[in-house]
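Ligand-bound model needed. PBG.
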Amino acid sequence: MYPLRRNRRLRTNEAIRSMVRENIITPNDFLVPLFVVEGKGVKEEIASMPNYYRYSLDLLEKEVKELWNMGLKSVLLFVKVPDNLKNNQGTEALNPDGLMQRAIKTVKNAVPDMLVMTDVALDPYSSFGHDGIVHNGKILNDETNAILSEMSLSHARAGADFVAPSDMMDGRIFEIRSLLEDEGFHNTGIMAYSAKYASAFYGPFRDALDSAPVDVKDIPKDKKAYQMDPANRIEALRETKMDIEEGADIVMVKPGLCYLDIVRDIKNEVEVPVAVYQVSGEYAMIKAAAEKGWLDHDAVMLEQITAIKRSGADIIATYFAKDIVKLIG
Ligand code: PBG
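Prediction:
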């Protein structure tokens, strides 16, 4: 009780503040998303994600070496697939010599100890821009799971350490885990996008991969029939607990900032590491406001990342990973 307690004593100067700080950001917290394209010598800036790039395999190699030297030890791979290789079943996803499979090998050859996680969903491979097979205006669940499992196996064979299913089909973790076990990939992990919301914050990412749902008659224009309703909270726990029962090693909440209540709910309930994905739209907002001179880029970035960690994130996937590591030294 005041005046016996004066909380400001612990805020007097940086020495005491840093001593009592409850959450510290380190390079170990981060998972770095990387976008990969075909070609040679390609480093293309993504229009709606300033200072973020798509890399061809040769430059990907350079990039992962740089990340490793900065202390960033895990990457999450995404590929941009040429239109002529897309179809409704996303069959290119299973090509053992596809871009993702080559990207996994490229990273592992360049930096053998780098932890490689891969996105598993059909959207970059789908002619309709959906995470699953489209049939009569609906996204098929179990038929999609069969492909996602094969896709995961293909990534495991190429050398992925973890597969990260981001599709939100029911039961996909069970199907993927079962196939990996059957094929002897006992040590390939699964990071499940467990509470993934149907969010408008994915816009810039869909630009980066040209993977947005197409505007064609009888094709769903959004992903609300599989991704979660932003209004729901209890459902996130149900999804997450099911994924853990089905074999997920790590669970994820996505997007980040708007969903930190969900992160805390899950952190309090589960006994596996919790990842948070600060998504493309969150990145774009900070970049845009900073470009206009309306916000202090570094301060806002650090505050948001700190908030994500404080909410309970053990792992943070963010496009700011390099910027943050440079900032915190
Ligand atoms: C694909 C996928 C998406 C993101 C990660 N994996 C897009 C989507 O579901 O439409 C979004 C990442 C971001 O916005 O940064 N299933």
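The mean pLDDT is 97.
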